[in-house]
Amino acid sequence: MDVSIKTTDQIQKMRIAGRLAADVLEMISPHVQPGISTEELDRICHDYMINTQQTIPAPLNYNGFPKSICTSVNEVVCHGIPSAKKVLKEGDIINIDITVIKDGLHGDTSKMFHVGKPLQHAERLVNITQECLYKGIDIVKPGTTLGDIGDTIQRHAEANYYSVVREYCGHGIGEVFHESPQVLHYGKKGTGLELKEGMTFTIEPMLNAGKRHVKLNKQDGWTVSTKDHRLSAQWEHTMLVTHDGVEVFTARPDEPFYSS
Ligand code: MF3
Ligand code: CO
Ligand code: CO
Hints:
By secondary structure, the protein is of the alpha+beta class. The protein has four helices and 15 strands. A hairpin with a 2-residue loop joins strand 4 and strand 5. The longest helix has 21 residues, at about 10-30. It starts with 7 loop residues before the first helix and ends in a 12-residue tail after the last strand. One cobalt (II) ion (CO) binds near residues 108 and 204.
């Protein structure tokens, strides 16, 4: 369980990859409307990554994943496979998860969208999940432990009567898509790995409106849904531990920690 410290050169390349991944989410945003299929969203993102950005969509063929992005609608927790049969409708929520490779380095980020006008109960789940990500990011600096991050996220989720998915977590990232450490979204303050300057990883909490339990679709081998079929939400950023805090590589211009 060796956690890599990135070089200045790797960090500069991850800044670029992170920005490009964030750009894909901004690009796709106006397309997320009632009537579009998740396969069309995949095609638009795929073409943009390949032709406009000259990036590689990391999910495509990753451990056999068949598409270029993940699209997780309503009760789908993560790893939803884009499909022509999945047409978005008014009131749906969808997570779009983008991972690009540029110059050999990865940028991984996801966000939630409301399809049409947000429903109040969905909006609350989506917003609290984003707050969990932000509260996790806020405490990242040398000396913070992974347990501190998990504890912070779990407390905010449970204080709001939501549950935290246990089976999937954030991860170290760089030249490798998923590397050490595992970044759990639950835990105990003061436990686990201590963060050091130069580490890069994702935080990507998944919160369920109901119980935390999930099930994997045995047909497609990928789609993870809530067992109780209630809504799930997720937000993700890729970040760097700096000498005194954090730099979020995948920040979008509308976010507090964005720097141009
Ligand atoms: N982007 C996802 C993550 O946040 C991983 C997707 S792997 C895939 O780690 F194969 F499903 F694409
Ligand atoms: Co990730
Ligand atoms: Co991701």
